[in-house]
Design a protein that fits this description.
The chain is mainly alpha-helical. The chain has one domain: Growth Hormone, Chain: A (Up-down Bundle). It contains 16 helices and 2 strands. Helix 1 packs parallel to helix 6, helix 6 packs antiparallel against helix 12 and helix 10 packs antiparallel against helix 14. It starts with 6 loop residues before the first helix and ends with a helix.
């Protein structure tokens, strides 16, 4: 095995990792804002959208990851998926109440129809995005790196969400998100950029050395869920279980984070406040993968969970700008460094030639269960949240800091789970 990765690899990782995460940031953090501001969506609406997207992402990754193994190609799924992903994002420009009323004058609530259509189009977008990114791109990344450089690659990959958040936050400063025309322009820009990235990838991506499977397609689909597979790879599934707890913690608060900053705290300039935190957390995450390569999973995961938990405590207890900044910085450092170390550890246990088949299991622990359970916990915690009446007579909820207290419980549970597993392993070795 060689420790050095090619320049083309790093270019492809950064370009596709960043553009993919920018699209996911729009979906995960701003679709919620979109339906909240444009159609007065409730916490239940947001929870439903996140859950539906999580189910779609998981099923897509299971079936399309297995298909990419069967065909033995990653590049065609990545590039083709990005092109269609961008087109699906572009389609959101048609989600407007006046267009709905023109097309369906008999509807009683155009806003409710728009919320429903947003959920449906979100699932369509997720299908193409998960095909390109969750299934093919992640399988490509697993096969392109090895145990000598996986941490470094995963560190860069894990920092992409924060860089994407910074790019989106900065870009969104030019838009008034209370205006429909702003969202139209946003969807046009992001849709075109994602499509162009798919075209660029035709010339920049070197296809990974995929081991084409001769197994029947259905067997590759269910491979990661077979009892025999779990029995043969127990450590992989233990870390996937811990990853579930970690991601549930994140999904409790993440769908409401921007709304919390802007509405609950009244931080209209939250972009300027959060940008330094995002930059610092990105730097930490980039180096944390290399720390993982040198020191291993244990100490790397401990620091990540400590940072995450400390951030939650500050965000729960304080509302001053300075302490919210520090809490957000710690939370982001813990979140992204945790994603890096869990991602590297899980990839290291994936058997050779099974990368596509097991992406579905990975997304099951990263997206499906957390995407359903996390927002449900968040919705439950916010059941008695304050309600305000908007200028147009509609009502909206105001998220409170209890979402961070609930997230803290899951963060601590992740640490306890790993501690118990570590003790069991040591006991069995004794």
């Amino acid at each position: 095995m060689t420790k050095k990765l090619s320049g083309r690899f790093w270019i492809s990782l950064i370009l596709f990792g960043l553009m993919g995460q920018i699209a996911w940031v729009i979906e995960n953090m701003y679709f919620n804002v979109f339906i909240y501001k444009m159609f007065s969506a409730s916490a239940s609406d947001i929870s439903l959208m996140v859950a539906a997207s999580a189910v779609c992402a998981t099923l897509t990754t299971v079936f399309m990851g297995a298909l990419s193994d069967k065909i033995g190609k990653r590049k065609m799924f990545i590039c083709g998926g990005y092109i269609l992903w961008g087109a699906s994002i572009f389609s959101f420009i048609f989600l407007k109440e006046d267009l709905i009323l023109s097309a369906f004058p008999f509807v009683t609530s155009a806003a409710a129809v728009c919320v429903t259509l947003t959920v449906v189009l979100d699932c369509v977008m997720t299908f193409f995005g998960s095909t390109a990114n969750d299934a093919a791109f992640n399988a490509w990344l697993t096969e392109s790196a090895n145990d000598l450089n996986r941490g470094a690659a995963e560190g860069v990959n894990a920092m992409m969400p924060l860089v994407a958040i910074l790019a989106v936050f900065g870009g969104f400063m030019a838009f008034d998100l209370d205006k429909s025309e702003s969202w139209t322009l946003i969807f046009i820009i992001i849709g075109v950029c994602v499509t162009l990235m798919g075209i660029i990838g035709i010339f920049t991506i070197d296809d990974s050395k995929t081991v084409k499977t001769d197994e029947k397609y259905f067997k590759t689909v269910i491979y990661g869920f077979r009892p025999s597979t779990i029995k043969a790879n127990p450590a992989l599934y233990v870390y996937l279980a811990a990853f579930i707890l970690f991601n549930i913690s994140i999904q409790i608060f993440m769908p409401y984070l921007i709304i919390y900053y802007e509405v609950s705290l009244g931080m209209k300039d939250y972009v300027l406040i959060m940008a330094p935190a995002i930059i610092l957390a990105s730097v930490v995450t980039a180096f944390w993968g290399r720390f993982y390569d040198k020191k291993g999973f244990g100490i790397s995961a401990v620091f990540s969970l400590v940072w995450l938990s400390a951030g939650y405590i500050l965000l729960f207890a304080f509302k001053s700008t300075a302490l919210v900044f520090v809490g957000s910085l710690l939370m982001m450092c813990g979140y992204l460094s945790g994603m890096a170390v869990f991602g590297a550890k899980i990839r290291s246990y994936i058997p050779e030639g099974k990368a596509g088949m097991l992406q579905g299991v990975r997304i099951f622990s990263q997206v499906l269960i957390p995407g359903i359970v996390g927002p449900f916990i968040g919705k439950t915690v916010l059941a008695n949240a304050e309600i305000i009446t908007n200028n147009d007579g509609t009502t909206s909820f105001i998220p409170n800091s209890n979402i961070f207290a609930a997230a803290l419980v899951l963060s601590l549970a992740t640490g306890v789970f790993l501690l118990v597993y570590n003790k069991v392993i040591k006991k069995n070795k004794a």
